[in-house]
Amino acid sequence: MLYFVATPIGNLKDITLRALEVLRAVDEIACEDTRHTLGLLNAYEIKKPLFSYHKFNEKEVGEKIIQKLKDGKNIAVVSDAGMPVISDPGNVLAKMLIEEGLEFTVIPGACACVSALVLGGLDASKFCFLGFLPQKNSERKEVLSKYENVDATLIFYSAPHDVKKDIESIYSVFGDRVAVAVKEITKLHERAERFNLADGLPTEPKGEYVLLVEGKKQGNDNLNLTEKEHIELYISQGLDKKEALKRVAKERGVSKSELYKYTIE
Length: 265
Prior knowledge:
- The protein has 265 residues and is α/β, with parallel strands linked by helices.
- Helices cover 37% and strands 18% of the residues.
- It contains 10 helices and 10 strands.
- The strands form 2 sheets. Strands 3-2-4-1-5 form a 5-stranded parallel beta sheet, sandwiched between helices. It has a 5-stranded mixed beta sheet with strand order 6-7-10-8-9, sandwiched between helices.
- It is elongated.
């Protein structure tokens, strides 16, 4: 049997009892970085043979894993943090196992995108996970354009050196929307920063982020306006400044205090 095992995304105590049980029972463990996984195993006094399995050798090592399974071994697959397969190695292997008719299962646990969705405070009734955006600008635009009109919270993973570029790319296609940048999940400095795409991230990027972006609000083209234009629209329709602020804040899902600066002029 092969086990895809979720590991902590920050706090080592977030590993499950079942995950520890499986890691102790298997014959070998496939992992992204043997040094990283060794630290986790040492924390729980687990000693097992480790071998490297990452996105650059998925096919080659996947074939070796299949042979090990055919030889009767039990194998666990872990990523550096969170759930394997989800924007981490494992998806290629899962398909190979299905083709070979070999059994595999999942040992659930920590997952950054779901944890960030809870911390972000945006609509969690429906969401769409897009993972990491492509590096090429043309491919980014192509991907984002497909989801521009989706009425669900959109979730992206973003490396520290890509955060600003990712936000700019999303803004260029989606226009201004409420977004949340979540980092250091389960760690001491866990933080969820709420901002508008037009303004960009309010702090200097540090560490990996999960970016949450509100979905397209169907039937409300006012969200394509800037905050100032949105407020001025309602004032031109006869609302006083206070009521215009209240309505715009509700439509954009932000506090009135965040919009007050646009009314000072």
